[in-house]
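Q: My labmate handed me this sequence with no annotations at all. I'd like to see what the chain might look like in three dimensions before we decide whether it's worth expressing. Could you predict it?
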Amino acid sequence: MELDVLLCDYAQVAGEKLFVSGANIDRIRFEAGTGGPYVINASVAGLVHVPWMSTNAEHVLTIKLVTEDGKTPELPSGMEVSDQGIGGEIRFNVGRPPQLTGGEEQNVPFAFNFQNLPLMQSGRFSVVFSLDGAEARRVPFTVHVEPKRKSFGPASIPGV
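A: Here is what I predict for the chain of 160 residues:
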């Protein structure tokens, strides 16, 4: 099986369609001086390409958020994270409808939303995707706090 994924502002699956808004994120920015927690509102969306020979069997897509060193991100005190970390899993079973010809693959759309997730540190993160227990893809992104800017010259003088 193959996997196409992207990080976006928001995604949802309705019927067999995948709806995506604000796609292709690789950096989530916060204004200079912003301290943690950094509240993340992002989604991962994609398609699992299921080949003919992998139909009629249960499969598991696991989604997990990790830091650049592979650890579970720190959340504010009082917020507990399960042993599995931050993420979830999607179970699916694709049949073989009579209108498909032998060898034809099927696409399973998915969306997973990380809404109002308070990360305590900025830096590099990855969303790790595993299919049936084997890592299939990583989508890296950066939580970035803009540097403080200093202005010099006429633009920095009030009234000029």
